[in-house]
Amino acid sequence: MPKHDKIFATPQQDIPDFRFNEQVVSVFPDMISRSIPGYGAIIDGIGAICARVAQDRTRLYDLGCSLGAATLSMRRHVGDNQCRIIAVDNSEAMVSRAQEHLNAFVSGTDVELVCADIRDVAIENASLVVLNFTLQFLPPQDRADLMKKIYQGLVPGGVVIVSEKLRFEGERLHQLLDEMHLDFKRANGYSELEISQKRTALENVMKPDSKQQHYQRFKDAGFSEYSSWYQNLNFTSLMAIK
Ligand SMILES: Nc1ncnc2c1ncn2[C@@H]1O[C@H](C[S@+](CC[C@H]([NH3+])C(=O)[O-])CC(=O)[O-])[C@@H](O)[C@H]1O
Ligand SMILES: O=C(O)C(=O)Cc1ccccc1
Questions:
Q1: CB of 34 sitting under 6 A from ligand 2
Q2: Which of 47, 129, 150, 214 could form a disulfide with 61 if both were Cys (CB 3.0 to 4.6 A apart)?
Q3: For residue 149, is it within any domain?
């Protein structure tokens, strides 16, 4: 039975930094769908992009795969073109649960599930690299090098997808969209206590960039064509093509 996220429902003395541990894994599908507006639409869109850009005998990467939602969507849409999917996460708890999810469906496409830090993983012969709400958890100073590594590992015509929570450079716009996101969480049953405790837990762990910073990073890595293909409030999915 899918479990309801109650992690921040009771008052906590000291709120430790947010971690992708067993407790989070056990409620993760509920937590992510109630917290990220458009999450399901983005997962479907990743499949649709994959159907168009996956090239014969190349690799597809899902970096920070959690339970493998993007991997499953890619695997459903990739068709019979001898692609290999490499799904990476550095949380043991996530990876072991993801393996169960992947085993629950049959497919002709191989998936290699790796427990590792995405900063240590080689990217080679890739036609699609997905970072679905992962880059924002990497220390900001490590993000540019990762994007350069991805650019280098893509084949011509290859695509990187980067889904993120956005920070807005205009303060009033930032506040408005942030409040509207909190309204989305309230509408999904999160209390003020849950919202504020989770915010504290994420403060040191998740540092969103602005869209301008993402575009500059794509450019610095070597990409000349990039755009947002989805946005819902302060959550977006971007893509760049090599
Ligand atoms: N350095 C790192 N190396 C490897 N994994 C990492 C690292 N840092 C964080 N992670 C992993 O990135 C994932 C981020 S969740 C992605 C959702 C998924 N993509 C989805 O489509 O459902 C987003 C969220 O919960 O907001 C977690 O599983 C971390 O363990
Ligand atoms: O930005 C937020 O307020 C979130 O809750 C995003 C989120 C969703 C799932 C796990 C961690 C952060």
A1: no
A2: 129
A3: yes
